[in-house]
Design goal:
The protein is built from 1 helix and 5 strands; from the N terminus they run βββββα. By secondary structure, it is mostly beta strands. The chain starts with 5 loop residues before the first strand and ends in a 12-residue tail after the last helix.
Length: 89
């Protein structure tokens, strides 16, 4: 089915965290009209990074990147090496 999913926690409703699998990140963008306020913002485009996650229920959802916490990130970092050495950090 899907490969390379990353276990994570997602905060979606009232600060409650849910188990999820991170599918990936993308840039969500949309257009908007001009503000009706005098001196308000002009019409244009807005964008923000988003994450796509697979929930335990089987639902796929788009969430804000700040609401995703990778599970066992320490173990994930142990799989990589930095070429500059760790003494400099």
């Amino acid at each position: 089915m899907m490969e390379n999913l990353t276990p994570c926690w997602v905060y979606r409703k009232q600060g409650k965290r849910e188990k999820a699998l991170l599918i990936g990140f993308f840039q969500e963008a949309w257009t908007h009209g001009a503000s009706i306020s005098i001196g308000g913002f002009p019409a244009g485009q807005s964008a923000r990074p988003s994450a796509v996650v697979l929930l335990e229920s089987g639902d796929v959802d788009t969430v804000h990147t700040a609401s995703v916490t990778i599970d066992n990130a320490e173990g994930l970092f142990e799989q990589y090496a930095w070429l500059d050495g760790e003494e400099d950090a």
